[in-house]
C-alpha cells in the first residue's frame, strides 16, 4: 500500500492564501482549487493510487511557469509537474500539500526546420502531434509510446519514454536535441538546440528521465526523420512463451534489427483480437509482431531472413501483412492492448522492467510460475526486441488481498529483472510505484549520489518529492 510524505501543516493551514497568490499570477481560469474540479488531477495512469492536490495551475507560457515556480519556491510549496497524466508508475500522483503544474495548455508547435531536421514544440504538444505536424512533408518523430495520442512530449522527456519502434530508432533520449526548462526557483534556462552535440556537461542526458524532479520542461527540440519508403509486419505464432522468447533471442543475436519486435502471450492475443479483429492466431500460446521497413527489395530480403529464423522455431503459423490496412489492424491491436486487457479485467497493474533478451525464455517461465503461486492471471505484452517486459497483472480492486498480492507479484517480477542483470524500469519510470525497490537496483552510496544530484537542482526537495527515492522518515 502506498505511503505518502507527511503534508506540511503550515502549507495546509495557508491554503487559501496560497491559492490567492497563484490567482494573482495567472488568469482566473488557470487556477483550480474547488474539490470537484480537482478530481481529474488526483490520479494518473496508475489509478490504484489517488490524492487530491492543494491546487492545480494551468499556465500557457514559459514566463507563467517561471512566475508560479518563483512563488511556490518563496512560499515553500511543493510542486508536481503534469503532462497528460498517463504515467503508469504514478509519476504525476499529487501530494495533499502540493500544487500540480499542468503543462497541457502549452500545446503549440513553435518551429519546424526541415533543413536541419528538427522541430521545437511546447511541452504540452502530444507525441503524435509532432508527427502530425511534419508527415505532410514526409517526416516523422520516431519514439511512439502506445499512449501517443494522449501523452505529451514534456512527459516523454521526463520519463525517457519508448515505444514499439524504439528498437530501431532509440528512445526519447536518442531523439532529443534541446530543452527550455524552468528551475525550482523560477529561472528560465535553454539547453542544447538544433544541433547534435552541446558544450559542457550532458545536461540533456541528466534531465531526460529525471521524472519531473530536477526542473519543469516547457519547450522541447526533437529530431525529425524522413519517413521510410514502406513497412510490412509479419505475425509469427508459437506453441509456447518459451519458444517465442527463444525466437526473439535468435533474431536479436543474428544481428538483424527489425524496426519493431513485439511479443504477446495467449491472454493478450485473445483480448486484442476481440478488440481489433486483426487476424491474430487464436490457436497460439504466443505471437511475435515483427516489422521491417525500407524499399520493397529491402523489405523482401529482411522478411526472408526473419522467416528462416522463425521457421527454425517450429512456428504454428507465419503471416506477412499484404496491405497497409492489414498492417494498421495489426498495430491497432498492439497499441490498444492495455485498453483491451481492461475489457477482461477492469483492474490491472502494468509492470515495466528490462532484461537481457537472452533471458526471455527463463523469465517468462518464472513469471508463469509466480502467476500460479499468487493465484493471479497475467498477460504479457511487450517490446521484446529490447528486452522491455510489460506483464499486466490482473486483480480485483474491491478485494484488498487481491491488490496486495498483485503488488507483491509485481515487485517479485522487478526483482527478477534485476537478478537477471536487467533493470527496474524500461520506459515507465520509477514514480511512486517502484520507489521502495530502488535499493534492489542501487547500493546505498549510489542512491546517496543520486539524492545529491536532486539536491543540487532542488535543495528544498519541492519538485515531485514523493517520487523515485525510497521515503525516509514519515
Ligand atoms: C495505455 C498506455 C500505454 C502506454 N504505453 C507506453 C509506451 O509504449 N511507452 C512508454 O514509454 N510509456 C507508455 N505509457 C506511459 C506514459 O504514457 C509515458 O510515461 C508518458 O511519457 C507520460 O507522458 P504524460 O504527458 O502523460 O506525463 P505525465 O503522466 O503527466 O507525467 C509523467 C512524469 O513526467 C513528469 N512531467 C510531465 N510533464 C513534465 C514537464 N513538462 N516537465 C517536467 N516534468 C514533467 C511528471 O511529474 C511525471 O513524473 C503508457 C501509458 C498508458 C496509459
How would you explain this protein's 3D organization?
The chain has 474 residues and is an alpha+beta fold. Among the domains are: 109-226, Uridine Diphospho-n-acetylenolpyruvylglucosamine Reductase, domain 3, CATH 3.30.465.10; 231-338, Alpha-Beta Plaits (2-Layer Sandwich); 345-419, Alpha-Beta Plaits (2-Layer Sandwich). Helices cover 36% and strands 20% of the residues. The protein has 17 helices and 20 strands. The strands form 5 sheets. It has a 7-stranded antiparallel β-sheet with strand order 15-12-14-13-18-20-16, with helices on both faces. Helix 2 runs antiparallel to helix 4 (62-75), helix 9 (241-253) runs antiparallel to helix 14 and helix 10 crosses helix 12. The longest helix is centred in the C-terminal third of the chain and has 20 residues, at 400-419. The structure holds flavin-adenine dinucleotide.
Amino acid at each position: 500500500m502506498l505511503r505518502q510524505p507527511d503534508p506540511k501543516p503550515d502549507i495546509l493551514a495557508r491554503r487559501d492564501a496560497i491559492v490567492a497568490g497563484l490567482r494573482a499570477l495567472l488568469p482566473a481560469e488557470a487556477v483550480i482549487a474547488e474539490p470537484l474540479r480537482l478530481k481529474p488531477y488526483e490520479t494518473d495512469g496508475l489509478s490504484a493510487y489517488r490524492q487530491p492536490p492543494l491546487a492545480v495551475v494551468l499556465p500557457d507560457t514559459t514566463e507563467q511557469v517561471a512566475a508560479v515556480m518563483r512563488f511556490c519556491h518563496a512560499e515553500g510549496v511543493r510542486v508536481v509537474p503534469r503532462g497528460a497524466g498517463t504515467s503508469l508508475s504514478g509519476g504525476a500522483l499529487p501530494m495533499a500539500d502540493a500544487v500540480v503544474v499542468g503543462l497541457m495548455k502549452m500545446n503549440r508547435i513553435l518551429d519546424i526546420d526541415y533543413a536541419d531536421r528538427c522541430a521545437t514544440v511546447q511541452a504540452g504538444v502530444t507525441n503524435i502531434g509532432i508527427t502530425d505536424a511534419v508527415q505532410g512533408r514526409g517526416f516523422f518523430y520516431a519514439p511512439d509510446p502506445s499512449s501517443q495520442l494522449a501523452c505529451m512530449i514534456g512527459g516523454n522527456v521526463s520519463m525517457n519514454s519508448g515505444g514499439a519502434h524504439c528498437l530501431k530508432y532509440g528512445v526519447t533520449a536518442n531523439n532529443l536535441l534541446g530543452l527550455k526548462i524552468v528551475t525550482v526557483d523560477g529561472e528560465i534556462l535553454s539547453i542544447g538546440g538544433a544541433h547534435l552535440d552541446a558544450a559542457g556537461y550532458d545536461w540533456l542526458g541528466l534531465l531526460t528521465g529525471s521524472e519531473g524532479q530536477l526542473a519543469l520542461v516547457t519547450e522541447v527540440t526533437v529530431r525529425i526523420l524522413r519517413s521510410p519508403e514502406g513497412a510490412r509486419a509479419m505475425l509469427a505464432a508459437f506453441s509456447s512463451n518459451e519458444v517465442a522468447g527463444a525466437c526473439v533471442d535468435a533474431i536479436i543475436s543474428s544481428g538483424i534489427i527489425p524496426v519493431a519486435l513485439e511479443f504477446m502471450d495467449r491472454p493478450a492475443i485473445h483480448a486484442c483480437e476481440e478488440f481489433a479483429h486483426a487476424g491474430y492466431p487464436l490457436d497460439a500460446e504466443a505471437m511475435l509482431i515483427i516489422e521491417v521497413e525500407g524499399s520493397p527489395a529491402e523489405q523482401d530480403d529482411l522478411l526472408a531472413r526473419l522467416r528462416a529464423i522463425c521457421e527454425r522455431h517450429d512456428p504454428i503459423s507465419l503471416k506477412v501483412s499484404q496491405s497497409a490496412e492489414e498492417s494498421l489492424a495489426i498495430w491497432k491491436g498492439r497499441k490498444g492492448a492495455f485498453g483491451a486487457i481492461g475489457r477482461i479485467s477492469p483492474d490491472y497493474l502494468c509492470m515495466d522492467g528490462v532484461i537481457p533478451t537472452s533471458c526471455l525464455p527463463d523469465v517468462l517461465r518464472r513469471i508463469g510460475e509466480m502467476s500460479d503461486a499468487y493465484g493471479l492471471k497475467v498477460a504479457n505484452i511487450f517490446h521484446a526486441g529490447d528486452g522491455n517486459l510489460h506483464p499486466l497483472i490482473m486483480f480485483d480492486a474491491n478485494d484488498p488481498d487481491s491488490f496486495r498480492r498483485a503488488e507483491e507479484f509485481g515487485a517479485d517480477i522487478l526483482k527478477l529483472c534485476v537478478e537477471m542483470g536487467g533493470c527496474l524500469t524500461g520506459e515507465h519510470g520509477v514514480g511512486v510505484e517502484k520507489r521502495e525497490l530502488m535499493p534492489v537496483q542501487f547500493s546505498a552510496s549510489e542512491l546517496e549520489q543520486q539524492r545529491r544530484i536532486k539536491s543540487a537542482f532542488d535543495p528544498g526537495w519541492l519538485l515531485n518529492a514523493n517520487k523515485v527515492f525510497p521515503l525516509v522518515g514519515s
